[in-house]
């Protein structure tokens, strides 16, 4: 009996070239993997301490793709900030009371603390690139001033300082997990603690009115 040789096998069809849609989906997946890896790396090491090679290794991709998709390390950092601004726009898309707004920010920070860690790292290391997205904060203060005029915030509270204080409150469990454990006996990433803390901030914000 004759044993079939490789040449006797049915010829394989040529491998199909990916379509434009498939290429775009692959590119978007690669971009998202790099952004996720960069978020972890920048949050852990700051902008100056983060390494392009380490980000690529976290993502399991070639480091050259960072230059290809983002123009380099600074562009990647900027893309992360822009993605947060998009997320923030979604949080504030619908009109909300101040208590509901603060609760939404706190829940977002606790559900995925990587964005909060990136913000905290930028302040701790003070090394953000010159091309960094740098909102003036004027719009945030104007929004607080509007709420104050409508009675949600007492007239003797400085809107800008209140903005700083509320940001600190939403970031506190991420910035000070050891303090959370010491004072409450809970883990900051425990869903039960998240629910308690979000509700606490909601009640706190509700008491800021006249």
Automatic annotation (TrEMBL):
Residues 51-70 bind DNA. The keyword Cell wall biogenesis/degradation does not apply. GO terms for molecular function: DNA binding. Residues 28-88 form the HTH tetR-type domain. InterPro entries: Homeodomain-like_sf (IPR009057), HTH-type_TetR-like_transc_reg (IPR050109), HTH_TetR (IPR001647), Tet_transcr_reg_TetR-rel_C_sf (IPR036271). It comes from the Bacteria. Gene3D superfamilies: Tetracycline Repressor, domain 2. GO terms for biological process: regulation of DNA-templated transcription. SUPFAM superfamilies: Homeodomain-like, Tetracyclin repressor-like, C-terminal domain. Keywords: DNA-binding. Pfam families: TetR_N (PF00440). The keyword DNA-binding applies. Residues 1-29 are annotated as: Disordered. Residues 18-29 have a biased composition (Basic and acidic residues). This is Transcriptional regulator, TetR family. It comes from Cryptosporangium aurantiacum.
């Amino acid at each position: 009996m004759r044993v079939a040789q490789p040449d006797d096998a049915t010829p394989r069809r040529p491998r199909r070239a990916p379509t434009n849609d498939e290429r775009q989906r692959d590119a978007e997946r690669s971009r998202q993997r790099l952004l996720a890896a960069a978020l972890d790396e920048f949050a852990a090491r700051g902008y100056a301490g983060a390494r392009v090679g380490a980000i690529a290794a976290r993502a399991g991709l070639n480091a050259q793709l960072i230059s290809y998709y983002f123009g380099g390390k600074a562009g990647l950092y900027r893309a992360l900030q822009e993605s947060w601004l998009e997320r923030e726009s979604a949080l504030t898309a619908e009109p909300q009371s101040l208590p509901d707004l603060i609760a939404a920010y706190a829940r977002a920070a606790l559900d995925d603390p990587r964005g909060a860690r990136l913000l905290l790292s930028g302040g701790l290391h003070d090394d953000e690139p010159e091309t960094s997205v740098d909102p003036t904060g004027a719009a945030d203060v104007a929004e607080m001033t509007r709420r104050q005029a409508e009675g949600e915030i007492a007239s003797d509270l400085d809107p800008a300082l209140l903005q700083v204080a509320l940001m600190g409150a939403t970031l506190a469990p991420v910035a000070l997990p050891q303090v959370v454990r010491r004072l409450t006996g809970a883990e900051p990433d425990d869903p039960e603690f998240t629910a308690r803390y979000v509700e606490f901030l909601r009640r706190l914000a509700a008491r800021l009115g006249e």
